[in-house]
Amino acid sequence: MKTIGTVTGVIIGILAGFFGARMEGLNWHSVLASPGAANYQNSPVKRDPAFVAEWEKLKKTNPQEFANQKARFLVMAQIDLARFGYGTRITGTLDQPTQEALKAYQLHKGIAATGDIEPVTIDNLSSDDDSISHPDLFLGPYVFIADGWDGGTFTATGSWVEEGGKEPDLENSQLDCYEDWHVCIDAQAREMKLFSATSIIGKSDAYRIKTWDKYEIVADSGNFDPCERDTLHINRQEKSVSLVSVPAYKDEKTCKIFGAPKTVTFRLVDGKQIADPRNKARQSAFKSVIQMSEKAWAIIDGK
Questions:
Q1: DSSP-H helix ranges across the chain
Q2: What is the pLDDT of residue 3?
Q3: Does 143 have pLDDT greater than 50?
Q4: Three-state secondary structure call for residue 292
Q5: DSSP per-residue string spanning 126-139
Q6: CA 207, CA 69: separation in Å to the nearest integer?
Q7: What confidence score (pLDDT) does residue 248 get?
Q8: Do 112 and 185 sit in the same domain of this protein?
């Protein structure tokens, strides 16, 4: 979608975030422990066979380094358990309060209640920490500004969603059209995830105006892309903005890399339609992870 006529594209901090997350020994697992965080869901019990194998290998081949790594994981577990409301102190030792907190957490998660640090517990602590660590999302409203239509200017803002498609990306767009210049420019800010790093990319797509009358603006992406042609439709009466992406396949060999051809329609909508369900899921995850009394939850909920 909207790959034609790209004017600019800036990727911020992807490599820095990725390499900064990598650590020595078993700590590389911090990169792998949070794949479910994007949906802000408290996912089922996580068991990563690769991590378990690495854990057991280090335990047998380098007991001293294994002990050092386990001690680090213990401190991180105490921090997480304290944050989740299990009452631990950050002592760096597997004392009785920590064992009891671990058992309570393991029972809550459906993990074998060993009261000790092991891969499955580490996985779940990391995932739960990730699921409650994201602030509420805010995406801008849908605004259709046609005051300058008859004078040759138009602006709309919102977020693009695919009709009947997958969960939409997190992005905001501003669309500006200029009749005298025969162009519409869609400037976007979009979330991109690479392993454990989240970055924002900025890009602008240009569309050549083909029609501008009292009722509609129609613009297309031209013949620049070998795989698809995008057509922008702006309807003044309906106050709607849509984009139809049709496969072109001028370079069949290259285009097949991106899968089977498919005609897709996108609509510009209010960002709340995207943000609200994800915020509710994050709040649900928060209530599942954090151990609070009913009175405490009532206070938080303002009841």
A1: 14-21, 29-32, 49-61, 63-84, 96-109, 119-131, 252-255, 272-289, 294-300
A2: 39
A3: yes
A4: coil
A5: HHHHHHTSSPPP--
A6: 55
A7: 76
A8: no
- Half-sphere exposure of residue 15: CA atoms within 13 angstroms, side-chain side: 2
Task: In whole angstroms, give the CA distance from residue 128 to residue 107.
Answer: 15
**Percentages (nearest 5) of helix, strand, coil residues in the chain:** 40, 25, 35
Q: In what helix (H) or strand (E) does residue 204 lie, and over which residues does it extend?
A: strand 197-212
Asked whether 268 and 175 are in contact (CB, 8 A), the reply is yes
| Amino acid letter for position 122 | I
Give the bridge partners for 209, in sequence order: 219
Q: Residues 267, 189: one domain?
A: yes
How many CB atoms are closer than 10 A to CB 236?
16
Range of the domain at 113: 41-131
My answer on whether 143 and 219 are in the same domain is yes
> Count of domains in the chain?
2
Please provide the distance, in angstroms rounded to a whole number, between the alpha carbons at the two ends of the chain. 45
Average pLDDT, the chain: 81
Examine residue 301 and state whether it is found in any structural domain, yes or no.
no
CA gyration radius for the chain? Answer: 25
291 belongs to a structural domain: no
Domain boundary among 97, 131, 165: 131
Query: Do 146 and 266 sit in the same domain of this protein?
Result: yes
Q: Which of 131, 147, 171 is the last residue of a domain?
A: 131
Q: Which of 32-36, 66-70, 81-85 has the lowest mean pLDDT?
A: 32-36
- Integer Cα distance of 246 and 297 in angstroms: 50
Which structure tokens are listed for 241?
């903005």
Same domain as 141, residue 122 = no
pTM exceeding the 0.70 threshold for the entire prediction: no
